[in-house]
Amino acid sequence: MTSQGVSELIYWKDAKWTGFIFTGLVVALITLSQISIISIASNLSLTILCMTISARLYMKILKALKKSDGTNPFQTYLDVDISLTQEQTQKFVDRIILMVTSAMTELRRLFLVDSFIDSIKFTVLMYLLTYIGAVFNGLTLVIIAVICVFSIPLMYRQHQAQIDQYVGLVTSQIGNIREKFRAKIPSAKAKEQ
To answer: In what residue span(s) does the Reticulon domain sit (predicted)?
Structure first.
């Protein structure tokens, strides 16, 4: 899926398709929060197997009754080549190795305090995440994120003027508070002079 396709999806360009994707994601995530992933995977597999075995059995019965040639109804899917070329495999492996290496490098830098400020920021983030984890389940956060992705961009596009006006007011108030705060700190006054 391209970035344009994702943009069309979250801005509800095709309402039926976006509604289908959004509803499917939310229902799947809510289901995952109520039932274990193992149960969902096994029940889904059983459902698919029951349908495919029934279709295959139906074609066998038609062949026995000489009303069909009895070919596998899924033969076109069985004939599709899903193997990867060596170049594609190497490209994927290189990309995964690069991501893992950069993540490990960054985590090493943070945990072993290469930069004191960055490690403190990371510590504060992890501390805040403990509170978020105590209040929310990880799956609940994913559900909230999916709902936000499908609603906030559209809401912003529809009410952009009002939102920008209020954001401007909040930004100016934060700037005023920041200036008052800087004026009261003695070290900030000394640096300005």
So the answer is: 6-193
Give the separation between CA 103 and CA 95, rounded to whole angstroms.
12
∠ CA 81-84-86 to the nearest 5 degrees? Answer: 140
Distance CA 80, CA 147 (A): 36
Would the pTM count as exceeding 0.90?
A: no
What's the pLDDT tens digit per position in 16-46?
Answer: 888 899 998 988 888 888 887 788 788 889 9
Q: Can you give the chain as a three-state secondary structure string?
A: CCHHHHHHHHCCCCHHHHHHHHHHHHHHHHHHHHCCHHHHHHHHHHHHHHHHHHHHHHHHHHHHCCCCCCCCCCHHHHCCCCCCCHHHHHHHHHHHHHHHHHHHHHHHHHHCCCCHHHHHHHHHHHHHHHHHHHHCCHHHHHHHHHHHHHHHHHHHHHCHHHHHHHHHHHHHHHHHHHHHHHHHCHHHHHHHC
**Chain centroid to CA 109:** 26
